[in-house]
Structures are given as structure tokens and as C-alpha cells.
Amino acid sequence: MAQIPASSDRQFSADTEIWYSLKCAISTSSGFQRWQLERDAQLHGIRLEQQVQRYLRETLETLAY
Fold it and tell me: How many CB atoms lie within 10 A of CB 42?
């Protein structure tokens, strides 16, 4: 008998799908690609997800300044 996923499981799944969509959209943006080019040596060997997180952090810090 199949078990019905708990509400928190469904929310986690939805959050994961949203993050994946955002990560894809951000990674194809011209701003992100320019940011990657400026930091090429620093980003060597870093996963795309970590790059997107760093990009968002730096962008938000700049906006907050």
C-alpha cells in the first residue's frame, strides 16, 4: 500500500523544483555569465549551484550597500 507523502515532503519537493528553476534562469542570465567571466579563476572546480549561491549573495550585498 502506497503511503501518502506528508505535507512537509510535498513542500520540500516544491521548494526543490522552484530552486532548480531559479538556478537555471539565473545561470543563463547575462549578468550571471558576466559575473562568471570576471571570476573565472576563483570559480574553477565549484559546482554551478555554489556559483549561483555566491552570485546571489554578492548581488544582494551590493544592493544592500
Answer: 10
Please tell me the pTM assigned to this model.
0.76
Contact 27, 54 (CB under 8 A): no
Residue 49 in grid coordinates: 549551484
CA-to-CA dists, residue 18 to 12, 15, 21, 24, angstroms: 10, 5, 5, 10
Q: Say what the pLDDT of residue 38 is.
A: 95
Q: What one-character DSSP code corresponds to residue 15?
A: H
Per-domain residue ranges of the chain: 40-65
Distances (CA, A) of 50 to 5, 31, 42, 43: 29, 16, 12, 9
